[in-house]
Amino acid sequence: MPAEADPLSIALLDAEGGVLAVYTFRQAFTAGRAPDNMIVVDDDGVSRHHVEVRPAAGRWRIRDLGSANGVFIDDRRIENEEELVLPAHVALGGSGAWLRITRLPTASASAPAERAGSSAVGAPAGYSGSEPAPQRPLTADPATAFRAEGEGSAATAGRRTSGAPADPGSGIVQAHGGPFAEILAVTVLAPDGSLMTTFELTGSFSVGRAPDNTIVLDDAAVSRRHLEVSKRGVGWQVIDLGSANGVYLNDALIERAAELPFPAAILVGRSGICLQITRSSPAQESSQVALPAPVSAVPQSDHARPGSGKVQSRAPEDIKARLLDEAEAEDSGEYTRIVRRIIREDRVIRKKSYRKVIWVLGVLFGLSICLASYQQFALANTRRLALELFHDIKTLEVSLGQAEIGLEESADTLAKTIAAISSERLRVADEQLKAEREKIAAEQKRMVQERQRLAAMKTKYRQYVEEANSLRLRFPGKRYEEDLIARVASELGESELELPDEFVSEVRKYIKYWQGGSRMQKAIENMEQNNYLPVVAGALKKHGLPLYFIYLPLQESNYDTQSIGPQTRFGIAKGAWQLLPATAQEYGIATGPLADVAAYDDQDARFDFRQATQAGVKYLKRIYSREAQASGLLVMASYNYGDTRVRKMIREMPDDPRERNFWKLTKQYQLPKETHDYVFYILSAAVIGEDPPHFGFKFSPPLLMVAADGQQESNTGRQKGRRQ
C-alpha cells in the first residue's frame, strides 16, 4: 500500500499574526472565499477557490486553483503545483491572510522542544518553543475542518487565538477572552452518528446555515442563525435564536434559553445533526493528543443529564431501530417521542402523497394508451382514405389522358376532313360541320371541368397525407429531405404512403452522385441561357403532365440540342430529347436525309428544340395515359427502353392504376441497370431542383421560376382585359 502522508496542523492567521482558527487534516482540503471550501477566508483579496493542498505518495502537494492574486510560499509565488515542504507559511494573494502549515505530532506534546530556538509543532503564533506547546486534538475524520471568517466577525470572536503564555512553564495560553479562558470542545455528529468535524472554542459561538456563523451547517432544516452558546457568569447557556425547528438540549426542547450542563448533547432542529460539547482547560489540553470517540448523533433519554458527568454512545443502527420501531421503548425520552411522532406523521403524509402520485400516473398511463390507440386508428384510417383518393386520382388522370388523346385525334380528323372538303369542293351541309365542332367544344369544356375536379382531389389528398404525417413520429433532422422526396414521388404519380423503406436511401445515393460532379450545374445553366425552360414547361402544362419531366432532357442530353446518340438496331437518337427516327416521324417530325448517319443535319427537325419538345411531350403523354397508367416513374422507364423489354414487362401487369406502378414493377421484375439508373437520376435531380442550395448547388429552383413566369403572364392577361 502507498505510504500515508502525515496529518497536518493548519493555523489561519491574520495580517498581524493573530490566530483566527486552527484545523487538522489527513486528506485534501481547499481554502478560499466560497462557503464550500473547508477553510473559508472572507476577504476580497482571496479568490472563491484559491488554493488546494492534497496528499500524494506519502507527501503533501500544494496547487494554485487559478486564483487572481496568486499563492505565495515564504514570499515566493508558486507557478501552478509543487511539493509542499513543511513547515510552510502560505500567503493567499495580497489579502494579508496566511496559513501556517506544520506536521501534526502523534506522540505526547508535553515534553519540551529539544532544539533551541525552534517552536513546537502546531504551536500557536508567538510561542517561543522553550515550554511545552499546547496541542489541539486530532479529529477522527480524515476530512475534518471548520470554516473561518474574517477577524471581527461572529465567526472569529469565539475562536481560540494566539498569545503569549500567561505563566512560563504552565503551558496555558492566554486567550482574548481572558488570561485563563475555558475551552469548549465541540464535536459535530451527522444524523447517522458519524463524525463530521470538531472545534475548540474559547468564547461565545453561533450555529446556523448562514456563512457568518462560527459553525456553519449546510442543511435545509437548520435556520440561517439557529442557536448560540454563550458565557453566563461562571457557567454557559444555550440560546435559541428564533429557529424554525427548535433546539433540543439533552432530549428536551428549550423555550428560549437554558443553562448548559457538561457534557451536553444539542440537537439542531429536525436536521438530525448533534453537537456534543465538553469543557476543558488549556492545561488539560496540553497533556496529550486525543482522538474523540464517536458519539450518537441523536441524544436519547439516557444521554448526559445535569450532574451525570457522562454521555452514552449508540451505534447508528440502534438509533435507527429505536426511532423506526413500531413499539416505543420504555426508556424513550421526550425528544425521542417527538421525533417518532414526526416520523409517523411524515409516513402518513408520504403514503397519501404516494397514493396521489400513483393514481395520477395510472390515469396518465391510461390516457397515454388511449391516445396511442386513437393515434394508430386515426393514422390507419387517414392512410386508407388517402390511398383510396390517390388511386381515384390516378384513375381519373388515366381517363382524362385517354380522352384528351382521343379529342386531339378527333380534332385532327375534323381538320383534315374540312381541308379535304375544301380541296375537293364537296358540298356538305354546314349543319353537320357545326354539330361536329360543337361536340368537340363540349368535350373540351368537360375536360377542363374534369381537370378542375382532379386538382381539387389532389388538394384533398395532400391534406390527408399531411394529417397522416403529423401522426407519425420522425426525427426532425431527416424529415425535410424525406418530405422533398415524398412530394416529388407523389407528383410523379407514386403514393408516398406506399414508399418502400429502401426507396429514400436509394434516392439519397443518386443525389450524392449528382453532388460528386458538375454535370447538373452545367445542364441547368445551358437550359437557362437558351431559355429552354418555358418551352418545356409550357408543353407539359398543355398536356397535363407533371412538370418534373423537365429533368428528362437533362438526363438524356444535358439540354444539348445537337446531341447525337450511339447506333442502335432502332436507329440513331438525336437532339435534346434523343428521339429515334421512327418515334420522331410518328409525331410529325421530319428526320432529314442523314437520319441514319451519326452526324448533324440541319434538315432534321429533331435538332430544333421547339419541334422536338412538342414531339417528345406527346410521346410522354401517350405512355403516361396508356401503359404507364399515370405513373411518372413507369413513363421514364418506358421512354428509356422504348418498345423492348421494359414496355413488355409493363404491359404484362394488370391494367389498373392500383396495381401498375413502379414499386410493383421492381418487385415483379429485375430491371436493367441502365433503366434503374435512368429513373433514379431523373428522380434525384427533381428532388435537388426543389431546394438546390440545401444540396450544395448554385442555381434557383427551376419550377419556382416557372411558377413566377406563370403568375406574371396571369397578371399581364388581367391588365389587358381591363384595358379592353
From TrEMBL:
CDD domains for this protein: FHA
Coiled coil: 426-474
SUPFAM superfamilies: Lysozyme-like (SSF53955), SMAD/FHA domain (SSF49879)
Enzyme Commission (EC) number: 4.2.2.-
TM annotation in the entry: 357-374
Pfam families linked to this entry: FHA, SLT
Highest taxon above the source species: Bacteria
Annotated ranges, domain FHA: 29-78, 205-254
Segments for region (Disordered): 109-172
InterPro entries noted in UniProt: Cell_Proc_Reg/RNA_Proc, FHA_dom, Lysozyme-like_dom_sf, SMAD_FHA_dom_sf, Transglycosylase_SLT_dom_1
Signal peptide boundaries: none
Molecular function GO labels: lyase activity
Keywords: Coiled coil, Lyase, Membrane, Transmembrane, Transmembrane helix
Protein name: Membrane-bound lytic murein transglycosylase D
